[in-house]
Amino acid sequence: MSGGSENPPDPTNQGSVDASPASAPSQGPPVAVSFAEIFRAHAPYVWRCLRRMGVDSGDVDDVLQEVFLVVHRRLGDYDGRASMKAWIYGICVRKASDHRKLAHKKRERVTDDVPEAETTSAGPEASVAGRRALARLDQALAELDEDKRAAFVLYEIEGLGVAEVAAAVGVPLQTAYSRLTAARKHVELALRDHKEDA
Q1: Which domain holds residue 167?
Q2: Fewer beta carbons within 10 angstroms: which end of the chain, N or C?
Q3: Is 125 domain-assigned?
Q4: Which of 128, 147, 143, 151 lies closest to 189 in space, CA to CA?
Q5: What is the pTM of this model?
Q6: Is residue 167 included in any domain, yes or no?
Q7: pLDDT tens, 140-172?
Q8: Cβ-based burial of 54 (10 A; exposed 0-12, middle 13-18, buried ≥19)
């Protein structure tokens, strides 16, 4: 599953996936759901998280697949103490970290295939401005250490609560708050400095 698309996977276009029982989020009693349902519900979220955690666009599909292989293999270990989203995020953090450690060993492969042009519904100016803004955010996130980046991505981009962030990364609540605060300051400063330079 390599490719390098710039968009998260369309979970409705994934074909059949083996089903395994799992527990739902920690609110209420555990509910059995299939692996296919988990994949459909969380694949776009995992894709976005991996991109914001520094996984190159050309590798994000492969790392996403690795995340869901672990999810499938460890589904029986999920105990419902944290939400499914937080549990999967913990797996994302480890896989993104593993990928960054090994990324320097990978080599680009030369190909004669010409990539297809991207199509957008907005005009070219909006597309360019959007890509530039995203590149600035990616650069600011890349400057953060993994702990602060995880807190920022989960809270600010993915909309998890701070308690869920703490559970996902396995730290006390106050530690999650302090990491989030430090990350916000850094990102705000980085974006402000870039705006002043422009």
Answers
A1: 132-198
A2: C
A3: no
A4: 143
A5: 0.61
A6: yes
A7: 888 999 899 989 988 988 888 999 899 888 899
A8: middle
